[in-house]
């Protein structure tokens, strides 16, 4: 019996609807995000623990500093937005805390390795210990286990290990420390796996040699064709190579895990190499002026020879990649976040919302 055109049209429509529903159901629906890192993803920990990150930080979007080293949102903020989750509350900030959908253990100045040379005492091992304490207390109070095993665990750390080491080591000496840094990273990941973590999103380290504050600090160091510190970027590339190899190994060692390796380096370096095409001015200029060269951070005020000096932000912040010489503007963070969220710089190449699904071989 022949199928009428109307019947055929209905069948096609239903097939299309089924496909759309299947795509929606394939989202991971992460109930929570637990983040670990440094100031690139610190949403207020360093403000709570050591001292306020003052305005104009954060003011452009939040209307206040909100503890972030940027004019507005960070990459982690765009990730939680995409997952329709609230912005992450810092573990170290108890005032107005909301941990129903995760927590942020990232702290400004942190390193992977525990070292006195680091800017912060909250190295990755300490952050993981804080998480374990947080989980233990949560389970004893609320007896909720599913959120921890179904949550997304994100990492953005390593920049400080390389930047600090570069100040007193040669390129080859610094490269020789990478295996130990990766080992410390691995210990942290395995501890979290033991605690029930299964879904990991690991951001590699960015092109540290392109940070304006380091370019000013090392004017005699050789540059690459785009003006970045070549030796330091070489170290970052080697770090990322070893990190990716280790993640490949962990996928085999931890059979119930799902690791996503995110090439943040390529996304951030792309901002530098294509700055003009993306609407940015000098990629090595920064918006919060007065922050570098006078020993003062963005938003700080100092007195020099009886004269009050203060840093202030530019009006056209959307035209800058760097916010303060170290951290990125909200515009730059958004561009990098978009590439993370759509999976274009990830391995496996899955959007963040589907970063729990095995790809077909």
Automatic annotation (TrEMBL):
**UniProt keywords, alphabetically:** Glycoprotein, Hydrolase, Signal
Pfam families attached to this UniProt entry: Lipase_GDSL
State the Gene Ontology terms under molecular function.
hydrolase activity, acting on ester bonds
Question: This protein's superkingdom?
Answer: Eukaryota
Q: Which residues form the signal peptide?
A: 1-23
Q: Is Glycoprotein one of the keywords?
A: yes
Q: Is Magnesium among the key words of this record?
A: no
Family of the protein in this entry: Belongs to the 'GDSL' lipolytic enzyme family.
Q: What is this protein called?
A: GDSL lipase/esterase
**Species annotation:** Arabidopsis suecica (Swedish thale-cress)
């Amino acid at each position: 019996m022949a199928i009428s055109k109307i019947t055929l049209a209905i069948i096609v429509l239903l097939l299309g609807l089924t496909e759309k529903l299947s795509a929606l159901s394939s989202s991971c629906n992460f109930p929570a995000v637990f983040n670990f890192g440094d100031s690139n993803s610190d949403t207020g920990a360093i403000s709570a623990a050591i001292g306020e990150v003052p305005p104009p930080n954060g003011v452009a979007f939040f209307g206040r500093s909100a503890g972030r080293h940027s004019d507005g949102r960070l990459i982690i903020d765009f990730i939680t937005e995409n997952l329709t989750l609230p912005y992450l509350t810092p573990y170290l900030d108890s005032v107005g805390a909301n941990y129903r959908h995760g927590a942020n253990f990232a702290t400004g100045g942190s390193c992977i390795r525990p070292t006195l040379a680091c800017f912060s005492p909250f190295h990755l091992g300490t952050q993981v210990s804080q998480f374990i304490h947080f989980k233990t207390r949560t389970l004893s109070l609320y007896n909720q286990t599913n959120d921890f095993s179904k949550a997304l665990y994100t990492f953005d750390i390593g920049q400080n290990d390389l930047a600090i080491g570069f100040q007193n080591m040669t390129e080859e000496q610094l490269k020789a420390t990478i295996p130990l840094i990766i080992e410390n990273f691995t210990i942290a990941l395995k501890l979290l796996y033991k605690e029930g973590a299964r879904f990991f999103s690991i951001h590699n380290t960015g092109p540290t040699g392109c940070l304006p504050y380091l370019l000013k600090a090392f004017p005699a160091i050789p540059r690459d064709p785009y003006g970045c510190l070549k030796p330091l970027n070489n170290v970052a590339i080697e770090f990322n190579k070893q990190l990716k190899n280790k993640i490949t190994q962990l996928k085999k060692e931890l059979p119930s895990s799902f690791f996503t390796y995110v090439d943040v380096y390529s996304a951030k370096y792309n901002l530098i190499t294509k700055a003009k095409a993306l609407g940015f001015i000098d990629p090595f200029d920064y918006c919060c002026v007065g922050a570098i060269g006078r020993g003062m951070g963005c938003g700080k005020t100092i007195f020099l020879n009886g004269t009050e000096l203060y840093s202030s932000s530019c009006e056209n912040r959307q035209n800058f990649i760097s916010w303060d010489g170290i951290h990125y503007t909200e515009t730059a963070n958004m561009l990098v976040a978009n590439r993370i969220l759509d999976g274009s710089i990830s391995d496996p190449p899955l959007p963040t919302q589907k970063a729990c699904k095995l790809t077909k071989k």
